[in-house]
Amino acid sequence: MPAESQWFHSAVVYQVYPRSFQDSDGDGIGDLRGVISRLDYLATLGVDVVWLSPIYTSPQDDNGYDISDYQDIDPTFGTLEDFDELVAQAHARGIRIVMDLVVNHTSDEHPWFVESRSSKDSPKRDWYWWQPPREGMEAGAPGAEPTNWHSFFSGPTWELDETSGEYYLHLFSRKQPDLNWENPQVRQAVYAMMRWWLDRGVDGFRMDVINMISKVLPLRDGPVIGAGPWGDGSPSFICGPRIHEFLQEMHREVFEGRAGKLLTVGEMPAVTVEQAVLFTDPARHEVDMVFQFEHVGLDHGEHKWDRRPLDLLDLKASLGRWQAGLAEVGWNSLYWNNHDQPRAVSRFGDDGQYRVESAKLLATVLHLHRGTPYVYQGEELGMTNVPFADASSFKDIESVNYYAAATGQGLLVEEVLDALRLGSRDNARSPVQWDGSPHAGFTTGTPWFPVHPNHSEVNAERAVADPDSVFHHYRRLIELRHTEPVVADGDFTMLLADSPAIYAFTRSLDGVTLLVVANFTGEEQKVTGLPEAQRWADAELLLGNYPDADATPLALRPWEATVHRLG
Ligand code: ISL
User: Fold this and answer.
1) How far apart are CA 88 and CA 84, in angstroms?
2) What distance in angstroms lies between residue 60's CA and the mean position of ligand 1's atoms?
3) In this structure, which of 154, 245, 250, 499 has its CB flanked by the most CB atoms within 10 Å?
4) pLDDT digit string (tens) for 302-350?
5) CATH ID of 491-566, from 1.10.287.130, 3.40.1130.10, 1.10.260.40, 2.60.40.1180
6) Which CATH architecture has domain 111-169?
7) Cα-to-centroid distance, 340 and ligand 1 (Å)
8) Where are the alpha helices (DSSP H) in 387-503?
């Protein structure tokens, strides 16, 4: 029997990327007062929790995922007073606030790193990963980095500090040095900071790349990627030997004994189902759920810039395995989108003729899985990928660095641009489209990132006024999770696993069964082989994505998705 129900089984989380959500002061960058001004919209949508991407003091090298003060708000976003008001106003609407916790690394401008870098004898020297050049090599010589690891943001993971002649580790940008979690002082400093936010009223944390904090010692070369020179360091830092110990310690030091409904979700690239069971087993006191990456890697070839179309069979096999793997112990998080992923309707649906239908289909399929669904800002409007003109259109450090590295290696500019158009994180970062006015109601100034030209058609004002919009479909799905115990806690059975066009499954609890059937193509599809087909043909239609009551699970129109109920 699956473990007992928990409050977050019937909750839906909405992710706000503050920079692109709503500007309130005309500087072209979203801010906390902007978020406050849209809380009623979020309450109408019905979400239970808001996860705020980082708003801490930061040089913004990686849009706030490089933090220089964990206990203050970046002036771009507002003040601590604004933050307190946001928490109070969200709570008044029954919405919890979850912070982004970025503690695999800090900014290189964080006082901890400034102190650490100041001298080899600094008391904070071993708060970070400092190492001499590779044995027998001169600091700064090509290949003298302590290991051959390739950074997530291109180039080596090691940066030479000229003064001391040593290198520091940065899995991400050179302005994001990795903290050394082996040092208990580091861990205690992080826990104290987390307690300070909880005491201030926040309701939990989304933990950035938290499965990378424990490294395998000594740090050593990884398998060479392609023709080299870089290697894959991930065997040395994905779910390292002390990861469970660190998360259990964090739980003890930060969360244990606190009343109230708190949420913890660990972002865990490359995590396996087997590991996820351990991380999310309530009896182990680590985290409530993890973000896994398998399903958002299925359209990658050798690497994320080598894209291929999604094969529905792969998607069903992957998500089905995660559903089965966490059926008895642990819990899934469910997402198509976040600030690092291209827009789902462009990626997995049809953002042209069937934009509305396919956006609703993706929502239906995801929200009816077992797990906690996450909605990324604008997803509920069916926002689409950005039409990037040229290299200067990309702002994200990952895209900018990749462009320089790939064209530097001789790849054709147009090919690199096409890869970026499909895969760039900037696709998710264009401003939320609130209305049809020149800057889509996002700002009265000049937006830091241009609003999407389709905002006159795709915008919140129109969506809220139209009962058949993508927005209202999300609202109904969220309501369904709140009101139907089978959505929150029912078991999951995949059907028609071999169909290349149809995604079908049931959810069952206490004599109630829901059947979800979705056509992932732009053509009509007959659905054959459904168990108990005739009973389902006569069953009650709970929800569909075509605005009429003719829907049957046995024949689906283009991108049609239906939810029927028995019992
Ligand atoms: O988007 C990615 C690159 O293709 C991922 O590898 C991403 O970098 C990874 O999921 C970690 O993401 C998180 O940590 C990064 C930050 O840039 C991302 O925005 C954040 O979600 C470093 O803090």
Assistant:
1) 6
2) 14
3) 250
4) 899 999 999 999 999 999 999 999 999 999 999 999 999 999 999 999 9
5) 2.60.40.1180
6) Alpha-Beta Complex (3.90)
7) 6
8) 397-408, 413-423, 460-465, 470-483, 485-489
